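INPUT
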Amino acid sequence: MNNSLIIGQYVPGNSIVHRLDPRTKITIIFFFVFIVFFANTLISYGILTIFALTSMITSRVPIRFILKGLTPVWFLIVFTFILHLFVTKEGTLIFHLSIFKFYSGGVIQGLAISVRFFLLILVTSLLTLTTTPIEITDAIEDMLHPLNKIKFPVHELALMMSISLRFIPTLMQETDKISKAQASRGVDFRTGPIKDRAKAVVPLLVPLFVSAFKRAEELAMAMEARGYHGGEGRTKLRELKIGKHDILIYILFAFVIAILFYTRSY
Amino acid sequence: MDITFKNVSYIYQANSPFAHKAIDDLSFHIPSGSFVAVIGHTGSGKSTLIQHLNGLVKPTAGEVTIGDFHLTPEQKPKNMKELRSRVGVVFQYPEHQLFEETVEKDIAFGPENFGVSKSEIKHRIQQITPAVGLTEELLERSPFELSGGQMRRVAIAGVLAVRPDVLVLDEPTAGLDPRGQKEMMKMFYQLHQEQGLTTILVTHSMEDAVKYADHVIILNKGTKYMEGKPEAVFTQKKALNKVQLDVPEMVQFLNQFQTKLGKEIPFDRQSIKQVAQSIQQIIKGAESS
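OUTPUT
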């Protein structure tokens, strides 16, 4: 079962960042992603970095979880930095190595892009680290609400999302159970030629699909039995509510944007 | 094959904030040919114990010995396949593992993996089908068309077709109708005796344990809580109640009999008929005196 039982990367907590309305978090991150690309001076980068790092620290998420989220993109960050070093030919020549010429513009550009990447990943992973998938779905349903007017099935979409999220751990357990049962019947998932290993997946997938379909049918039946009939007139157990903190964060974020545009060079 | 657990512990997700000790310093010995019932409340570590018997997990500490196979935290036996062919496990709800197009193919799947010849498999299927209570004409059907009880029988046949020396049963009768439960347990007991199997039955049912097992191990929170002969273990009402287990109905009856009538009939795994005879004797004795 390993670590797979934790859905997404949510780390339980009770910090201000955790308690913020998920809509606030999504909105702010949405705009943050945009304005990151407007920064072009040291101060403007500084202000965004301070904002991101402060959120990270106040969220009280252990640093190793955040680093874990960053691991897949380290390569990308380093790669773009190096690419800029070699390709950008602006500013003064600072280093000369046979046919390679490194310019100051390259270093600056490379650093700037890396910082942008880093900030983007940090802030977006902070969302999934401090918000449960269900909260995110609720927020998305609420924010997409206007689309109802053009007959877009917002509620159904949100329900599909939360049901699939809900059943990820169940399917994981099921996979674990069935693969063990088949292993005990002599299936070898780990060794042997690739052709045999691919074949070994069949005894795992067929029962998995069968039980998933069965489960879906049972769920549909149980929902109907309890009177579910779509989103019409349905109330919520967890009402989303914009609180004092949310308003404060919005104001703070507005300041950040204002300073950014004031300090960036045109 | 003798089975020995020596100070075995198993921790799920060790070294993480989600670490959970499923088995804690467990030791016991099961001699070859015995019928052992492992009883415990949900979460007492029964299923984890079973997975050790098949090398599906290795102990976090301690040593598991099954015949000539040794499982320690450092090493798994190299010939894992042979271990699995000699220890057959019927998991909980085994019908969930069916996948082939026909019943026959599904039963043959295990033996094929362990390299049994085609003609031998055919021979075994012919033997096993009636033994588990299936009929020949079902062999060509898809397992997914069968009833729940029949699917269970197919899955069990699939394990038995490997001809293991040790048979591990994880609540094999859960979810069956009462009659099916009885038939199935009878079948396992018959196989146990005829083929000289070592059988390990994980169950909630005190009645099954008292009827078939010659040794009982009671687990609680991953440790051994009690162990011994059924007649010795099942008469300790207080100790069993403490871990949310009940004594078998027969023991309850004999206890009630004693408190109401003041006559003791010692519990010795008697059948209903035998108890009736003992009562008859007591009443006759009372009348004649």
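end of record. The beta strands of chain B are 3-12, 20-30, 35-40, 61-66, 69-71, 87-90, 166-170, 198-203, 215-220, 223-228.
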